[in-house]
Structure formats: structure tokens, C-alpha cells
Design goal:
Layout lengths: L5 H5 L2 E9 L9 H5 L5 E5 L14 H6 L16 H11 L8 E5 L4 E10 L1
Amino acid sequence: MPEITAKEQLTQVESVGIRILGQDDPRKMTLNQFNNSPELLFHGTSHPMQFSPTFDYHSKEYLTQSDGSTTLGFGFYTTDNEIEAKNYSIVRQGGGKVQPIIIRILPYQARVLDLRQKII
């Protein structure tokens, strides 16, 4: 397979965009099935939180108690890379010897904006 340049790669990618995640209901899974699901996502945070699908990200509570990161806008951000979530948590807690806070999320029929790039 011939190698392509970085410039050529950039012309062959596009955002994945809106998609639905989670075909299997996590409420019907064993803990082992949950933890080994290929759809498992991670959320690194600066403080313990209770996840709620109806949380208002424009609320005064969020604006005054969040870690202040709205780089890509208001919302609940996840990654499929546990190390990235761990590093984000450490940075948001100020670095040093802190305990990373990572929440495991297994979406079920969740409509999400996927910002990764795909090769076209």
C-alpha cells in the first residue's frame, strides 16, 4: 500500500458528525459485560458528580460549580480513551498528586456529536 503525505491525509478526512451510540441496554448487562463493552466511554472530571441525562448545562449550578471548561461549548464530553480522561481529570484538579476522577459511561441510544475524524 503506497504511503500518503499528511497533506493528502487531511484532504481525505471529515468529521464523523451526529450519530447514535449504544445498541445494548446497559441495565441488562452484567458488570463484566459493561466493563468490556466496545462502546464504553470515559468522562474525566475535577470533582465527583452524579450523572443525569436531564442536567441543565446552562444552569447557575453548572456555571458556578463546573471546572469551567467550555472549549467546545456546553455539554457532557467523553472519550473512548481512559488515559485521556484520567489526564483531563488530573489537569482540571490542578495537577500534582491528585486522585483522578473518571466516570464510566455506556450510552444507550444516545444522540451525540462525534468530533473524531474519519478517512473518506
